[in-house]
Amino acid sequence: MVSEAFPRTRSKANSATALPSCCQEDLRIAGWVKTTLIDYPGKIASTLFLEGCNFRCPYCHNPQLVSLPSTAVYLKTEEILGHFSTFSRLLEGVCLSGGEPLLQKGLLPFCRNLVKLGLKLKLDTNGSLPEHLELLLGQNLLDYAAVDVKGPPGKLGVITRSRLNEGELTRALESTVRLLKEYGVSFELRTTVVPGLLEPDDLHRLAEWMRGAPRLVLQQFRPGKTLDPVYQDVLPYPPQFLRELAATLTGFFGECTVRGLGDTLSPNPASELQPG
To answer: What residues make up the domain containing 64?
Structure first.
């Protein structure tokens, strides 16, 4: 699995309030993993990484995607759709990751084109744009969603470094989960457990808040490449700690699992970009 055509630039960690440039563009696809067996549960898929994010999580492991300069070169949607048209019989779905894909104006027509090819769509989202999400749901374009819940109410602003206030972030996530349930779209919640940002009590408060969701995935923090350099050398929680934590949260959800224990101390060298 190789990430292709990614513009190699350094992004600044302190631009917390700036809107990404993709808000003014149709579609900015910055990376592509043509075949993946892990990004879309149960499906042979392809993953597209869309540039731009309205969050500035300090531990973000895709800092290149947060905001890119106007000179960056992006993948052409025509080429991507041509590839999918040729190989659609070998693929079952497409994972739309980021960044935050819902920021991009061209996402809706692009998704329509993917569905016309017979492909199922999975969306990775930070849950801050429920009104944009509903545009996709209303046209029956999504098959699966992964919603990143960065922490419990009271900690969302500190972790995301977003220009949205705590109340706005909380309500947006609640609306996102409600919409997915109402439209009958399968989904999972994901939380990256970062030492110094989230403690066991925080995860229990998050579980109380999101009680009843079908699945919570606790993700291991990956040091090495982070938006804020301070987090590059932070040691992750031990794997057994996360397993035991997941066991205590199982009763709140249909399922609670742990992901990312295989690469505890370093990012996956096979791909610069990692979903979630």
So the answer is: 25-263
